[in-house]
């Protein structure tokens, strides 16, 4: 047990080290100069001496390996550095933007669950009936619409014509509704079909037929046997969706001018703000790895066979 935990920790350490090297080197290969963005060369006349002085001040003239060593030393001390544009701590800026993105992510997940769970479940229970055909049609239409175009349609309807909701920005929970609807509707189109297929596949298992043969109540069979078994593929896909959802908020946050991590990183990329971009990449890496670890742990609770196999292997 301790050996497997140690092996896992070593793998995670090597993964983050490799990710830090790749992200640092790739950013240096991206065309553009952060110094020109800082000094606003396009708006103000700046001499070459001023550009070189700024590069020396920021340490950008040092060899690449030296820059990486300095950055890695700060990272070990849990210091992500400071933004080249705002001069504020990257961690402080990140902590200020994270609640907005988490609120948007949570709102979109609620919308997705309220739509996908009922439609997917009814579609599986009443297979090939009108509710099944309706839910599959809705799912097909939803998956065919780009999220940014769906967002524009919602803005046109609820903000411009009906004047019920604010079109963009932040300030109250009303500002969260349209972006949450946009992301939630886009996700629900995928999960309706996934829930339907997972429930149908689980209902055909031998242990479900055995539970019915023992005379268990249909609701108990569905909840503790069919639905529980269907959670394994659902959680697998959901773990992947969490990373793409957090990254997918970039388009929606820019569209709705919502001040979350997505809009923050887009502005940082445009300004070649290297410390912010590197901090964002590391955060996404930690987030995705953490989600995968939690999903692996949940498998052992949902399907006891996985836990027993793990013990046999260990």
UniProtKB/TrEMBL annotation:
> Chief subcellular site?
membrane
InterPro entries attached to this UniProt entry: BPD_transp_1_N, MetI-like, MetI-like_sf, Opp2B
Q: How does it assemble?
A: The complex is composed of two ATP-binding proteins (NikD and NikE), two transmembrane proteins (NikB and NikC) and a solute-binding protein (NikA).
Q: What is this protein called?
A: Nickel import system permease protein NikB
Transmembrane residues, as ranges?
Answer: 12-30, 104-126, 138-160, 172-192, 231-257, 277-295
User: The ABC transmembrane type-1 domain covers which part of the protein?
Assistant: 98-295
Task: Give UniProt keywords alphabetically.
Answer: Cell membrane, Ion transport, Membrane, Nickel, Nickel transport, Transmembrane, Transmembrane helix, Transport
State the family named in the UniProt similarity comment for this chain: Belongs to the binding-protein-dependent transport system permease family. OppBC subfamily.
NCBIfam families according to UniProt? Opp2B
Q: How does it sit in the membrane?
A: Multi-pass membrane protein
Q: Which organism is it from?
A: Paenibacillus forsythiae
Show the Pfam families listed in the entry: BPD_transp_1, BPD_transp_1_N
Signal peptide start-end: none
* Locations listed in the record: Cell membrane
């Amino acid at each position: 047990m301790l050996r497997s935990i140690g092996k896992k920790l070593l793998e995670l350490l090597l993964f983050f080290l490799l990710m830090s090297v790749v992200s640092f080197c790739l950013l240096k290969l991206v065309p553009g100069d952060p110094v020109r963005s800082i000094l606003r060369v396009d708006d103000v006349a700046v001499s070459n001496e001023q550009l070189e002085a700024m590069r020396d001040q920021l340490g950008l003239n040092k060899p690449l390996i030296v820059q990486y060593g300095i950055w890695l030393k700060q990272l070990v001390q849990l210091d992500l550095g400071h933004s080249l544009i705002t001069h504020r701590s990257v961690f402080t800026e990140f902590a200020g933007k994270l609640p907005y993105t988490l609120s948007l992510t949570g709102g979109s997940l609620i919308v997705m669950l309220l739509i996908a769970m009922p439609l997917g479940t009814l579609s599986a229970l009443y297979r090939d009936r009108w509710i099944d055909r309706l839910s599959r049609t809705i799912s097909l239409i939803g998956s065919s619409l780009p999220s940014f175009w769906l967002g524009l349609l919602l803005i046109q309807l609820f903000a411009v014509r009906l004047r019920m909701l604010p079109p963009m920005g932040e300030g109250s929970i009303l500002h969260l509704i349209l972006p949450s609807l946009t992301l939630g509707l886009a996700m629900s189109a995928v999960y309706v079909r996934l829930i339907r297929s997972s429930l149908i596949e689980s209902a055909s298992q031998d242990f479900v037929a055995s539970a019915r043969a023992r005379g268990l109540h249909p609701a108990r069979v569905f909840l503790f046997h069919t639905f529980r078994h269907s959670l394994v593929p659902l959680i697998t896909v959901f773990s992947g969706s969490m990373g793409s959802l957090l990254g997918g908020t970039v388009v929606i946050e820019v569209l709705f001018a919502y001040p979350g991590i997505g809009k923050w990183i887009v502005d940082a990329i445009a300004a070649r703000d290297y410390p912010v971009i590197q901090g964002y990449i590391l955060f996404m890496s930690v987030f995705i790895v953490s989600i995968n670890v939690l999903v692996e742990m949940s498998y052992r609770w949902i399907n006891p066979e996985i836990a027993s196999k793990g013990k046999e292997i260990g």
